[in-house]
């Protein structure tokens, strides 16, 4: 039994859980995978790492910009590039009209998520499969392992379609028709990420670090990922598909041919023939990568006597920065419905700063 259960240890879930924990609530986070970060994801491979989810941070909004400053001071992130080149079929590779710094974590983007975890109780490898209200006026979460967790309040910090699968069985009578309508209105685009490493002798290496494909049928983005890593022995890249290509392969069991196809397309378009012959390649399919129709609210609260609030980048949009803002809004909403113990002037950043500085200097 805990005060608050948070489903999902992505950025929104972690930020929400940390804020509630700092205010004095008991909080348990339940995460289906074996690590934190969700779509802020880094894969360790071939003696290096690659960011197959969020590729960089772009400061937006006051809170997020303060975090970016803090992480930069702690040397967790640094500027990677301030130019994301653009490729179009008609114009080839061109410089963008605007430049702005893109920040990355040399140790991998998932290290950013780890900064929200001090003091948090997180159950890993535990997927929530059913949620029920109990006679004792609590929520009961049933996990895949068949363990049960009860909580006075619930935060659902996962992509809207997954939240819909979990919450729809509770019905409109309990959750409110408007709540379910809003939840079901959010659609996501999928994406296929290809991580590929190449011979150390590959030439010519690109002069760009990051490049967006404009109006490309199959490709959306490519990053020279090894240029983020100080100790990299060989060039490696992360290539993201267009939503259209990922839609076509939502159920394709073997994605290796799709990965080869994407590399071949990039090799042709970018005039880097060696890109189609990787020494190694790994592929990840994101079924819910980017919210296509986000809600215009910071979090989505159900009309229940037992507090239940959803959050994530699909509330308000705006990627990692939006997920952070949404997680904070969900914490405040839960607090409003429970005990009102988060003071209006409590500065999340100030409180966390102590943690961040300590955990950074002791590691
Ligand atoms: C390929 C790609 C590139 C991107 N590039 C950028 C970028 O450059 N910059 C940027 O700012 N953003 C980028 N983003 C977007 C960014 O990653 C997201 O906006 C942000 O991470 C969303 O955080 P979240 O907490 O809302 O959700 P998520 O990160 O999706 O977290 C949800 C968590 O819930 C867990 N979960 C789901 N269902 C259950 C369940 N039933 N039980 C338990 N746990 C569950 C998941 O495992 C996951 O850990 C990118 C995303 C992708 C996929």
Describe this structure in a few short sentences.
With 363 residues, the protein is of the alpha/beta class. The chain is built from ten helices and 19 strands.
Structural class: alpha/beta
For this structure, what is the CATH class of the largest domain?
A: Alpha Beta
Rg over CA atoms, rounded to whole Å, is 21 Å
- Quaternary class: single chain
CATH superfamily annotation of the largest domain: FAD/NAD(P)-binding domain
- Low-pLDDT regions: none
CATH topology of the largest domain: FAD/NAD(P)-binding domain
CATH architecture of the largest domain: 3-Layer(bba) Sandwich
Q: How would you sum up the global shape?
A: globular
Helix content: 25-40%
Q: Counting H and I runs of at least 4 residues, what is the number of helices?
A: 10
Strand content: 25-35%
What distance lies between the first and last C-alpha atoms, to the nearest angstrom?
32 Å
Number of domains: 2
What attributes characterize this protein structure?
single chain; 363 residues; alpha/beta; FAD/NAD(P)-binding domain; Polyamine Oxidase, Chain A, domain 2; 2 domains; 8-stranded mixed β-sheet; 29% helix; binds flavin-adenine dinucleotide
């Amino acid at each position: 039994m805990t005060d608050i259960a948070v489903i999902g240890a992505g950025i929104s879930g972690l930020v929400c859980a940390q804020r509630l924990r700092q205010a004095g609530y008991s909080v348990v986070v339940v995460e289906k995978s074996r690590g934190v970060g969700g779509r802020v994801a880094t894969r360790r491979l071939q003696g290096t790492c690659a960011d197959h989810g969020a590729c960089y941070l772009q400061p937006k909004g006051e809170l997020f910009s303060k975090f970016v400053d803090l992480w930069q001071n702690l040397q967790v992130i640094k500027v990677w590039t301030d130019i994301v080149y653009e490729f179009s079929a008609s114009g080839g590779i061109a410089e963008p009209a605007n430049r702005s710094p893109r920040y990355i974590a040399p140790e991998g983007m998932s290290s950013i998520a780890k900064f929200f975890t001090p003091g948090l109780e997180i159950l890993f490898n535990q997927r929530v499969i059913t949620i029920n209200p109990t006679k004792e006026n609590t929520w009961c979460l049933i996990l895949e392992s068949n363990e049960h967790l009860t909580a006075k309040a619930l935060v659902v910090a996962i992509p809207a379609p997954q939240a819909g699968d979990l919450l729809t069985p509770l019905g409109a009578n309990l959750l409110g028709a408007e709540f379910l309508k809003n939840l079901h209105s959010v659609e996501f685009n999928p994406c296929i990420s290809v991580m590929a490493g190449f011979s150390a002798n590959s030439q010519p290496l690109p002069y760009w670090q990051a490049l967006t494909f404009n109006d490309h049928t199959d490709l959306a983005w490519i990053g020279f990922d090894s240029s983020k890593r100080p100790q990299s022995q060989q060039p490696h890249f992360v290539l993201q598909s267009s939503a259209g290509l990922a839609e076509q392969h939502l159920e394709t069991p073997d994605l290796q041919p799709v990965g080869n196809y994407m590399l071949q397309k990039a090799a042709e378009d970018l005039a880097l023939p060696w890109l189609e012959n990787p020494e190694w390649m790994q592929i990840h399919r994101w079924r819910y990568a980017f919210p296509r129709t986000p809600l215009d609210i910071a979090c989505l609260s159900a009309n229940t006597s037992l507090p239940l609030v959803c959050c994530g980048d699909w509330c308000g949009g705006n990627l990692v920065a939006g997920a952070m803002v949404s997680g904070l809004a969900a914490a405040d909403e839960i607090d409003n419905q429970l005990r009102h113990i988060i003071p209006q002037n409590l500065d999340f950043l100030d409180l966390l700063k102590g943690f961040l500085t300590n955990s950074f200097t002791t590691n």
